[in-house]
Amino acid sequence: MTLNDLVAAQRAFDTRHGWTPDRQDVRSVLNFLVRDTIGLVGEVGEFANELKKLQLVEGRDEFTPEWSSRLPNLREEIVDTLIYVVRIASHLEIDLEVEYATKLEKNRARFAKFERPSQR
Description:
Layout: H1 3-16, H2 26-57, H3 65-91, H4 96-111
Helix pairs in contact: 1-3, 2-3
């Protein structure tokens, strides 16, 4: 599944539930962007909270049962963040694949001087 497939699948899901803005109404689009940005920040916070809990109990050099028990939560929270990013891209009609490729090339040029010699 491509990024654009994810966007299309999420848009179809959202449309079935009435969770898409009226693209002809700037206020509608803006309201969805604000709501989904708040949702995104909340999900990033939940992911960070899971990491905080792991950091408090870890401190060893090996993976523990606590780590393994929290992995499903970490996975779920990071996917929740992706859903919000996909929704925001959909509201803005962004082609994530094109925009990602463009940004990756900019970052490659920008950070080329920091590459390790074995990775060039």
